[in-house]
What we know:
Layout: H1 3-6, H2 9-36, E1 50-59, E2 62-69, E3 72-79, E4 83-90, H3 107-112
Antiparallel strand pairs: 1-2, 2-3, 3-4
Amino acid sequence: MSADSLLDGATLTRLIAVLVLVIGLILIAGWLFKRTGAGFARAGAKFRRLAVIEARPLDPNHKLVLVSRDGVEHLLVVGSNHTVVVETGIVPPKPATPEDPIERVRFRDALAAAPSDRPVLKATDSFDEPIR
């Protein structure tokens, strides 16, 4: 057999198509495993004790991470070579329920409800004289 007969156009096209198909199947399988969590122990998944609540980058080498363990949160600074506990024993805030909504007070309403015995600076007041 000659080298020309092994790598003719049809064989080379078929080889590239099969290679693209295999790589595509590997990528799809990896995406499905990541999406469904397959490959990890799913027993007791309802009773997870540890969770990363939030993570924020501080700089290219450090992250601020809020971790929850058994209903108590811990604040960590994670670096490339070390981890520092900033605060521990943080009780997470109680989530707002529909029966107990969080009221938002508008600034104008808060000013109207302010006691009148406090001095208020008006736009027409001068800065040279004391506020009454």
